[in-house]
Please model this.
Amino acid sequence: MMLIVLPSQHSSKSIPQLLDVLNRKELENILIRMSQDDPAEVTIRVPKFTSEQSYQLVPVLKQMGAETLFDNPADLSHLIERDSSVRLNKVFHKAKIEVDELGTKAAAATMSIGNRALSPDFNVDRPFVYFIYEKSTKTVQFAGIFNSP
Model:
């Protein structure tokens, strides 16, 4: 599912200020309130966009305590047969999100756009924050900021 957090048109809060108050607990509360609302048919207007990011994960993995994966030789015996020439030297993560008239595609998973707006129209015509999450566990899988509708 995709959750769009659209600041009020009359709000003086910027996206960074919005993110300061939108912590994990607040996001969980929004998702809980949405799941308790009665479904409503809403016209949603969201700009088409694609967001793609690549990350080098070695520093992150080392910071998480996985330094030995990058030793020479690495102890990967729980994954492969012992071979002194095997070790990791690079780990990349690439994420791509596409939003178009057919819905949202995040990596290899296709997800639909959902909304619990109070009015029958939800026009996303200014910068917003988006979250793509797994509905049953409410686990955020992707998040981003769209600045130029």
User: Anything to note?
Assistant: The longest helix spans residues 24-36. The helical segments are 15-21, 24-36, 58-63.
